[in-house]
Design brief:
single chain, alpha/beta, 8-stranded parallel beta sheet, EC 2.5.1.15, Pterin-binding_dom, folate biosynthesis, Dihydropteroate synthase, binds pterin-6-yl-methyl-monophosphate, 42% helix, 8 strands
């Protein structure tokens, strides 16, 4: 596989959740053939990586054991890699990651950024594979109470810097690391918008940045009906595409999305227009932040 971490163009990661309860595509791909078929379609639609997860990280979700998680993801990883599809495993368990790498996964996508399992750094170091370190403060059941920050961007940046330092101290090579702000993980809608508006401050860490906004509930809240009913998950695609283009234009390395075709098409338009970059002067970033705090939609 070419070196994805150093890829210059935006990387599109397609989501393949093999869980019975994932919030957006829950249960639909639990059957092996259906999951493999969907993974191949994601690749054909333009996904550089298909991200396979066996445990729901939905806020409030119950945990499953490692054996169940492995049973869900390993057959799908084996079949997809045999079909030539590049795969990442979405897990925060070292045991599952290790088995997934043996089964053919090329990347570990760890929503806990190494915090959930102290053995993860060893697994990643020995495999010399890319490791997505997402910003995380606790398992799904607890994350709502953990959404308190002094300045969400500065705090997420500092906590990601700690995760990077821990990984490097464990012997993981710097050029294997990718960071992710972890939208929706111990974050309110206002936190997610502020992180989106101030991505350059996270890019300043000097690592490739993965952005995962696809279909998340803060988009449902933004697009809520007049009576406050959130926009249903399946109707958040245009908003997802907008987040993808804006994140990439701000300098993100990649985006993690459910509808790969829609985002790949939008990124093709962005590339054909000369891959324009957003340049947000600091005073404008501050204004965006203030607007969010006062509920102004820009
Ligand atoms: N979000 C989810 C799961 N895994 N991984 C990364 N790196 N970044 C994310 O934002 C992220 C993730 C939750 O969303 P899903 O249920 O649609 O997979």
């Amino acid at each position: 596989m070419t070196d994805l971490v150093r890829a210059s163009g935006p990387v599109v990661m397609g989501v393949l959740n093999v869980t019975p309860d994932s919030f957006s595509d829950g249960g639909r791909y639990a059957d092996l053939d259906a999951a493999v078929g969907h993974g191949v379609r994601l690749r054909d639609a333009g996904a550089h990586l298909v991200d396979i997860g066996g445990e729901s990280t939905r806020p409030g979700a119950e945990r499953i054991d490692a054996a169940t998680e492995a049973e869900r993801v390993l057959p799908v990883i084996r079949e997809l890699t045999a079909a030539g599809v590049a795969v990442s495993v979405d897990t925060s368990r070292a045991r599952v990651a290790e088995a997934a790498l043996v089964a053919g996964a090329a990347v570990v996508n760890d929503v806990s950024g190494g915090l959930a399992d102290p053995d993860m750094a060893r697994v990643v170091r020995d495999a010399h594979c890319p490791w997505v370190l997402m910003h995380w403060r606790g398992h799904s059941r607890a994350m709502r109470e953990l959404a308190t920050y002094t300045d969400v961007v500065a705090d997420v940046r500092a906590e990601l810097a700690q995760r990077i330092d821990t990984a490097l101290a464990a012997g993981v090579a710097a050029d294997r690391l990718i960071v992710d702000p972890g939208l929706g993980f111990a974050k309110t809608a206002a936190h997610n918008w502020e992180l989106s508006a101030r991505l350059p401050e996270l890019l300043d860490l000097g690592y490739p940045l993965l952005f995962g906004a696809s279909r998340k509930s803060y988009l449902g809240g933004l697009l809520a009906a007049a009576d406050g009913t959130p926009r249903p998950t399946a109707q958040r695609e245009a908003a997802t595409v907008a987040t993808s283009v804006l994140a990439v234009a701000a300098g993100a390395w990649g985006v993690r999305v459910h509808d790969v075709q829609a985002t790949a098409d939008a990124l093709a338009v962005w590339a054909a227009t000369g891959s324009p970059r957003l340049a947000v002067p600091p005073h404008d970033r501050k204004r965006t932040q203030d607007d969010h705090e006062h509920g102004v939609r820009r």
